[in-house]
Design goal:
The chain is globular and about 70 Å long. Helix content is about 45%, strand content about 20%. Strands 1, 2, 3, 4, 5, 6, 7, 8 and 9 form a nine-stranded antiparallel β-sheet that branches. The chain is an alpha+beta fold. Strand 4 and strand 5 form a beta hairpin. Helix 9 packs across helix 10.
Length: about 290
């Protein structure tokens, strides 16, 4: 890690900035910069940016002001979202400093990540439960930047996708309904029951279940369950010789016509066509699939 320009400065800072081309930007998400800093860092802002930055505070404490609002206390581990066009102003406690890493990024895919709840401009200060996974991804960008070469821009862009996933996993959910709800819902997703019945089995009001799923996935309960059901249906169509009606029942649909319509709308082809495309000429797993 490079030391700050003056030896009297009580912090260390290493950063690199990238200049992706128009072709790189067609990937939908590109990395514009990465940095790792430690110690009694200077205050940032007030300022505006034209792109997103994820600032991950891994040690220490400080403060963060977003959109001109009064400063909020920051205690590591925490994530600060800096979003385009919104003023931000932040800094560590001068008595202790803090350690941070940051990644600058932009692209058309950011909108989808925001809709799915991975980027939260409405919640710019996010408590984290841990940062090991996030630091692993940042380290991979740092290594790529140090190495350089013709693959750097694409390698860094791919890592930003991984960073957003790692940040989502690292988020500390303040609700008592967290992963246990999602685990149970995923386990029971193939049961032929309604969303209201899922809520009853979980012992929670339907609106609360909807909020929990939206917070975790960025989607509604029906959309989340449908994704699990269709993934399992694809496995059965590709790996067994079960008729479409049998596949439909296995994933929670008593009406095979309704299942086929759902499958075709979401996948873009009928179940029988999907099976034909996935055929490998191997012996179907008939016995195992019927157990």
């Amino acid at each position: 890690m490079a030391t700050a320009p003056y030896s009297s400065t009580p912090y260390s800072s290493w950063m690199r900035y990238f200049s992706p081309t128009a072709n790189h930007r067609r990937l939908g998400l590109v990395c514009l910069g990465v940095g790792v800093q430690q110690g009694e860092l200077p205050v940032v802002g007030p300022r505006f940016l034209d792109h997103h930055v994820a600032v991950v505070v891994t040690r220490g404490r400080g403060w963060f002001s977003h959109g001109g609002r009064p400063p909020q206390p920051v205690t590591a581990p925490a994530l600060l979202w800096l979003v385009p066009g919104v003023q931000h102003h932040y800094g560590p406690d001068p008595r202790t400093g803090w350690d941070e890493c940051f990644v600058d990024f932009t692209g058309s895919s950011v909108e989808a990540y925001t809709d799915l709840g991975y980027v939260t401009p409405d919640r710019p200060l996010v408590p984290l439960s841990a940062t090991a996974g996030v630091q692993h991804v940042v380290d991979s960008i740092v290594r790529a930047a140090r190495r350089g070469g013709p693959l750097l821009e694409v390698e860094a862009a791919a890592a930003v996708h991984g960073l957003l996933v790692a940040l989502r996993y690292a988020r500390a959910e303040v609700s008592r309904h967290g992963d246990a709800v999602m685990d149970t819902l995923a386990r029971d997703a193939l049961l032929p029951i309604s969303v209201a019945e899922h809520a009853a089995r979980l012992g929670m009001p339907l609106p609360q279940l909807r909020r929990a799923v939206r917070r975790s996935t960025g989607e509604g309960v029906k959309e989340y369950l449908l994704g699990i059901r269709l993934s399992r249906a694809k496995e059965l169509l590709a790996g067994t010789d079960l008729p479409v009606a049998g596949v439909a029942r296995r994933v929670g649909y008593e009406d095979p016509s309704y299942f086929s319509r759902l499958f075709s709308r979401r996948v873009g082809m009928a179940p029988v066509r999907f099976r034909a495309q996935q055929s490998t000429g191997r012996t179907p797993l008939t016995a195992r699939s019927r157990r």
